[in-house]
Amino acid sequence: MLHDELTPEEREGYARLPRERMPSRILEERTVRALKERGLIRSHPGGWGRVRPWMAATAVAASLALFASGLVVGQGMGARQTASALAAIYPDEAARAAATVQSTGTAHRTALAALVEATRSAQPEEMERAREVALASFWASAAEIVRLAPDDPLAARILQGLERAQQEGAGAEGTRNVVWY
Questions:
Q1: pTM to 2 decimals?
Q2: Domain residue spans in the chain?
Q3: Are the beta carbons of 94 and 82 closer than 8 angstroms?
Q4: Cβ atoms of residues 162 and 139 within 8 Å
Q5: Which pLDDT score is estimated for 181?
Q6: Which of 91-95, 135-139, 173-177 has the lowest mean pLDDT?
Q7: Distances 170 to 128, 140, 143, 144, 153 between C-alpha atoms, Å
Q8: pLDDT tens column, 101-154
Q9: What interhelical angle do 124-148 and 153-173 show, nearest 10?
Q10: Is the sign of the CA dihedral 11, 13, 16, 18 positive or negative?
């Protein structure tokens, strides 16, 4: 190597040389002017640090849209993967749960039919209580169906209809009593 071939005096002289040296301001300005003349750099009237309001608003809107879409896509993919994983781990559990839902659904319809018959001769406050119990049960079922199939438009519309009916009913009747069981 070149450093090994130096004499001790040359090494000493080499060690005394400055390692870093800041260029003069004039040299820097001449270099920038020469690069501009050759078209390698351009000067901007507002400078690099100037950001226009519409640029900032566009950047914020794009960032929010990207974040929201990533969140929605990630949640959808996560829900599908979780459902698939659970179905693979517990294949009989889903079939058993579906059979239970079917049998309890039949019992629920039978109980509702009996409630309808019982309220035909009931007092108005008893009829209202029976209606609220039936709607609360229906509302809870609709909410679970939306959790089961969040992309199902029918389930979502049923839940939206129930919410709209509650808002309209609350405006007309004051406060409502919801019976949760």
A1: 0.39
A2: 50-89, 92-181
A3: no
A4: yes
A5: 45
A6: 173-177
A7: 14, 18, 20, 23, 25
A8: 777 777 777 877 887 777 777 788 888 888 888 888 888 888 888 888 888 888
A9: 150
A10: negative
